[in-house]
Design brief:
The chain is α+β, with helices and mostly antiparallel strands.
């Protein structure tokens, strides 16, 4: 068999349509997934060697040696047929050369434009044929019309129908064989076996059953492998913001009407990721990214909301269809100097100023409509009138007005006695006035023209800089300017910044209505003005947000965490802003509170809302679109929280969510609020647990340091009783229990879940050391209200013998059955930690644990697990090692044991699952952040065969019973945990109806069928 360097050589003309088809075809062929049975039968794993030249070659009489060698080394020639192709001598020469090496059967035609056969190369319309004439054999040319794949249609449709036809030719199989894939292969195999059964006896029947099982197993394995590849492709496509491909690949990896595939974790995760299941519904999620070779310097969205038009720093205009999310046109301005502003003139018209003239383009057809030179041709900007009838251009010494067809209409000159020039201007909202910024004698002034009469008035006020001008609906002109004589310069993170005093001046007709001083701000920041409600002006300046009333007084002001890059939305109650650091910030005008609800890409230079509710932003010179995502599986509770939820406690009927020193109570069935528990601000608290219809809270009095337990009735929120533990001047080593520092922090002791301080809660029983004495324990059974003390009897020469003098208690853990207690002490001089295991019924020492383990990382559930420097050890109650897991590189942040399975979470996001020390699988979590996260912020919960791993406010669901190496899904933000008895995920979120407050909410878990329906619905209608 001949070995070829390339599977195919793509011959095409470097015209726009031909190049698009050639590029699309090359990418799709190289990405084409060949089914496993086809790979095995034809010995080809992947179509990955497609030759496509990158540059136009100079026309010569002969092909270059390099290109000729590539043609010889290609098994097939793919010809991109179009009228433009036939006009290229070079392209036709490529076909002729190829046919000198190979026959017509190795040429594949692809229609890019035009109608066949008129667009086929002539040499392909006939082929030599041997015939017998009067007994003599002769070679004649027989007319043929080659079959061609049709790529004149939409590329997505061509991928489904035409691409498999081309791929089948390259592989060497039939189209039907490729499409039916392994199902037909399996049926033929079964038919062959059944035929053998008829001939064979009992032994043959046994062999048939065994063979069928092996085939089915191999078939299932091949489907699983293919699903893993498709799932990986879906995740990769989402990273590139190609949601169409991601949804398509994710659905192919799951069962369908045509293919009964096994359901694997990777496919479920890809489907949930691509369909935005379990994502916060209140913010923006990136759905499309436009990366260009050069930075975007200006853009606009057409008034019919169909087109996105952008200009980059290389002078190229690119037009994108917002409905289909693809490029429709691209053309250069061919300008000596670039415009700094483009906008839409009449419908489908791009207007801009450069090289001394106003230019208008048909941006959809990429053709110039007209160009009107200006008189002075020095400085110029062009703006469309509000009624879309006129275009005005600042022409240095005049404002020239023309119609949208490029016909001169009116000239508004500066007075002859005024020594200055126009730098920019703005129209009033009704089109009656134009306000011009005039540079004169090193200062800036405002001059106003009346459009109908051409009358001109120059305002007397002068500034060193004008940062913004704006007309409101009452024709009041607002000017934001600064006086840099009072400015100061400084460096901030290697950036040179200038701060100045800013002024807001309002003009009514020819007089000053008021002049107000604005807060100092950085000159690096942008200025924006908007009419808030007809009575108040909304002003953003650098990182300042202000509302100015009709008298120039600041009605509201707030400083944002970063520079404001765009006003997204506003009403009388709130303002939504985009900040330069990538945050979407919601600011309530009632109380000044703010909520950061979305992280954009950093360096957000501009941001604006589109008519369909999506957000368009310019980040690092690239255009990005974010869309609000609402998850219909998310059910909100009726009343908001008093802040962000810290944790949750629940019984069968009631849910309690602490937020600082307040606890919100809800009915789980009706989702209605029951009340609020408010704790005293001065004391320290730790939320213990919820049982017997009560919420139990540990309290340390701020005055006496006395410790007690508070019992609150869950349904009513009333304090039932307070139990004094009889401990005074109590403190916990290493500061694990302390008074809250602010009202919004989370205050819970993480040892509840892991056991990392001298206080632990186990099955409603509280264990703690008495005043740092490792040999004396206070045990409070909250269920029976029994308070006892236990003295540990240590053996002679035991590890705790001299602990009261030189050591402090370091950790505490109790076995799940409540029989054994593990405690340790740390030498205050050396830091060495030693431990013992105690029989709780007698206080006798049952076993000792050698020094050298980590007193912050241990778990006692089904067995005691401790961490040493290079190993994780499982200990019996007598201290002997049952098994050991070697740690060769990273130590786990934390670990947990459930139903014999040990789960270890590592700083890089790996979750490794062991059974009796044997590694079962490794799951890669998508939010590794080990460098800044504390192990005490991680919690494990279980429901059926699933592990719900909470990491800060994110949640990942992992199937412990499957072999999958990805999570089933993740909740990206606001997760509190899983309400296991109902298989619901509890979270807190900003309700779409109110972006001012956080509400508790629950996700109803998607099953595979629901995920497929969600993804299929989005694939069919989301992008169109």
């Amino acid at each position: 068999m001949t070995e070829y360097k390339y599977n195919a050589f793509i011959s095409y003309r470097h015209a726009e349509k031909d190049s698009r088809v050639a590029k699309e075809l090359q990418q799709q062929l190289e990405r084409f997934v060949i089914p496993e049975p086809i790979r095995q039968r034809y010995g080809i794993r992947k179509i990955e060697r497609i030759f496509k030249d990158q540059e136009e070659l100079e026309l010569t009489d002969d092909l270059s040696e390099q290109l000729d060698e590539n043609l010889r080394s290609s098994e097939y020639l793919i010809v991109i047929c179009s009228p433009a192709y036939l006009q290229s001598k070079w392209c036709l020469q490529e076909v002729e050369h190829f046919l000198s090496y190979r026959d017509h059967d190795h040429v594949i035609c692809v229609l890019a434009d035009g109608e066949p056969p008129a667009v086929f190369p002539p040499v392909l319309l006939s082929q030599p044929k041997e015939v017998s004439i009067n007994g003599q054999k002769r070679i004649v040319e027989e007319s043929v019309e080659p079959l061609a794949a049709d790529y004149r249609q939409d590329f997505r449709q061509a991928r489904k129908i035409e691409l498999p036809r081309i791929a089948a030719r390259l592989i060497g199989c039939s189209y039907d064989e490729l499409v039916m894939r392994q199902e037909r292969y399996r049926r033929r195999k079964l038919a062959a076996i059944l035929t053998g059964v008829i001939v064979a006896a009992v032994l043959a029947i046994s062999y048939l059953l065994w063979s069928n099982a092996m085939i089915n197993r191999n078939y299932q394995r091949s489907l699983i492998n293919e699903s893993k590849v498709l799932s990986a492709n879906a995740v990769s496509a989402m990273e590139q913001m190609d949601r169409y491909s991601a949804l398509n690949s994710a659905l192919q990896a799951l069962p369908s009407a045509d293919q009964d595939r096994p359901i694997i974790d990777e496919a479920l995760y890809a489907a949930s990721l691509a369909s935005y299941a379990y994502q916060p519904p209140y913010g923006f999620l990136e759905t499309w990214r436009v990366d260009q070779a050069a930075d975007v310097i200006d853009h606009f969205v057409s008034r019919d909301a169909k087109w996105l038009v952008c200009l980059n720093s290389e002078g190229t205009v690119t037009v994108y269809s917002l409905a289909e999310r693809e490029m429709r046109a691209q053309f250069p301005l061919k300008a000596g100097s670039l415009p700094d502003h483009i906008e839409e003139g009449s419908s489908g018209q791009l207007v801009c100023y450069f090289d001394g003239a106003v230019h208008a383009y048909d941006f959809i057809n990429a053709s110039e409509l007209w160009a009107l030179p200006l008189k002075y041709q020095w400085l110029g900007t062009a703006h469309l009138s509000p009624d879309h009838k006129y275009i005005a251009a600042a022409d240095t010494l005049a404002i020239q007005v023309m119609t949208v067809k490029g016909e001169p209409f009116l000239s508004l000159p500066l007075p002859a006695e005024l020594d200055g020039y126009i730098t920019d201007f703005t129209w009033s909202q009704d089109g009656q006035y134009l306000a011009a910024i005039i540079r004169s004698e090193g200062r800036y002034q405002i001059g106003c023209y009346e459009f109908e009469t051409s009358r001109f008035h120059l305002h007397e006020e002068k500034w060193l800089h004008i940062d913004g001008i704006y007309y409101d609906s009452q024709n009041v002109l607002y000017v934001v300017a600064d006086d840099s004589e009072k400015s100061s310069a400084f460096y901030d993170n290697s950036t040179y910044l200038i701060t100045a005093d800013y002024f807001l001046t309002a003009y009514r007709d020819q007089s000053v209505r008021y002049s107000a001083t604005l807060p100092a701000a950085s000159l690096n920041g942008s200025c924006q003005l908007a009419e808030q409600d007809g009575h108040v002006l909304l002003v953003t300046l650098g990182n300042q947000l202000m509302l100015i009333d009709q008298n120039g007084r600041k009605a509201f002001g707030q400083q944002t965490p970063a520079e404001i890059s765009g006003i997204l939305d506003y009403d009388q109650t709130a303002v939504s802003l985009a900040l330069y650091d990538g945050q979407q910030l919601m600011v309530s005008l009632a109380d000044g509170s703010s909520i950061s609800s979305q992280q954009f890409s950093r360096n957000c230079q501009q941001a604006e809302m589109l008519e369909n509710g999506s957000c368009l932003s310019v980040c690092d010179g690239n255009l990005q679109i974010y869309e609000s995502v609402y998850d219909d599986s998310l059910e909100y509770f009726a009343e908001p929280l008093n802040g962000e939820g810290d944790d949750y406690f629940t019984d069968e009927t009631t849910l309690a969510i602490p937020a600082g020193r307040t606890v919100s109570l809800y009915d789980r069935q009706s989702r209605q609020a029951l009340g609020i528990i408010e704790l005293d601000r001065k004391d320290g608290y730790h939320y213990l647990d919820c049982a017997n219809g009560q919420l139990r809270i540990l309290k340390i009095d701020a005055d006496s340091a006395a410790m007690s337990v508070l019992f609150y009735e869950l349904r009513s929120g009333q304090l039932v009783r307070e139990k004094d533990l009889g401990i005074r001047e109590f403190h916990v080593a290493n500061g694990y229990l302390s008074s809250p520092m602010s009202d919004s922090d989370a205050y819970y002791l993480d040892s509840i879940y892991r056991g990392c301080s001298p206080l632990v809660l186990q099955s409603g029983v509280l264990y703690l050391h008495q005043q740092d004495d490792p040999c004396r324990l206070v045990i409070y059974d909250m269920n029976s209200d029994q308070l006892t003390e236990l003295t540990i009897r240590v053996p002679d020469n035991g590890v705790l013998l001299d602990s009261t003098i030189l050591s402090v208690p370091s950790c505490l853990a109790v076995s799940a059955d409540g029989k054994w207690l593990f405690t340790a002490v740390k030498d205050v001089r050396s830091g060495a930690v030693s431990g013992i295991i105690v029989d709780l019924s007698s206080g006798e020492c049952h076993g000792e644990v050698e020094a050298g383990f980590d007193d912050k990382q241990f778990v006692w559930k089904e067995e005691l697990l401790i961490m040493r420097e290079h190993a994780l050890e499982a200990l019996a109650a007598d201290g002997t090692v049952r098994y050991q897991i070697s740690l060769t590189s990273h130590r786990p942040l934390t670990f947990d044991l459930h139903d014999g399975l040990l789960s270890c979470l590592y700083p890089d996001g790996r979750l490794q699952v062991y059974r009796q020390g044997e590694l079962l699988k490794t799951v890669s979590l998508p939010f590794a952040d080990g460098s800044v996260i504390s192990a005490q912020m991680i919690r494990f919960q279980y429901h059926e065969d699933r592990l719900y791993l909470l990491w800060r406010d994110k949640l990942a669901a992992v199937d412990l019973a499957s072999e999958g190496t990805t999570p089933l899904f993740t909740v990206g933000k606001g997760a509190l945990g899983c309400l296991s008895d109902r298989a619901e995920i509890l979270t807190y979120a900003l309700s779409p109806a109110s972006l001012r407050q956080y509400y508790p909410a629950v996700y109803h878990l998607y099953d595979a069928q629901q995920l497929m329906e969600r993804a299929g619905k989005q694939l069919g209608g989301y992008l169109r």
